[in-house]
Amino acid sequence: HLQLVESGGGLVQPGGSLRLSCAASGFTLYGYAISWFRPALGKEREVFSCISYRDGKTNYAGSAKGRFTISRDNANVYLEMNNVKPEDTGVYFCAAADWSPSRPICTFPDSEGRYGHWGRGTQVTVSS
């Protein structure tokens, strides 16, 4: 059974950088789309970036482009956060959904019901 564990969160000053990790175990990530969820206005969280493990293709919400970079290696998915802002504060989750060639890696917004595997989240706090 696929398990996901986020790490890398913590306290960072505005304008700083942070790298979050989503470590996978128990099952290969091949065949999965992995998405990062962030705090959202008006709802608990929203997907804002995703990656297809099988080919490394990525997708970003428009508001995430330029400051966030998603990548992967053999057993981890990463999120690099640059020029962080106080509004980035919150719990970040990674989640895995079955990959399908018939649809985008993820959509903005995306149905949480599509994701069968979730990590517990990692807290990011942006403050001086």
Structural class: mainly beta
Overall mean confidence score, pLDDT? 95
What are the secondary-structure elements, in order, as H or E?
EEEEEEEEEEE
Number of helices: 0
Largest sheet: 7 strands, mixed
Number of strands: 11
Radius of gyration: 14 Å
The first-to-last residue Cα distance is 40 Å
Please mark out the parts with pLDDT under 50 across 5 or more consecutive residues, or reply none.
none
Strand content: over 45%
Shape, per Cα inertia axes: globular
Helix content: under 10%
Characteristic terms for this protein:
four-stranded antiparallel sheet, globular, 128 residues
Describe, in short, the structure shown.
By secondary structure, the chain is mostly beta strands. It has strands at 3-7, 10-12, 18-25, 32-40, 43-52, 58-60, 68-72, 76-81, 90-98, 115-118, 122-126.
Question: What this model shows, in words?
Answer:
The protein is mainly beta. The protein has strands at residues 3-7, 10-12, 18-25, 32-40, 43-52, 58-60, 68-72, 76-81, 90-98, 115-118, 122-126. A hairpin with a 2-residue loop joins strand 4 (32-40) and strand 5 (43-52). It is globular and about 40 Å long. The protein starts with a strand and ends with a strand. The relative contact order is 0.31.
Structural topology:
Blueprint (H helix, E strand, L loop, with lengths): L2 E5 L2 E3 L5 E8 L6 E9 L2 E10 L5 E3 L7 E5 L3 E6 L8 E9 L16 E4 L3 E5 L2
Parallel strand pairs: 2-11
Antiparallel strand pairs: 1-3, 3-8, 4-5, 4-9, 5-6, 7-8, 9-10, 9-11
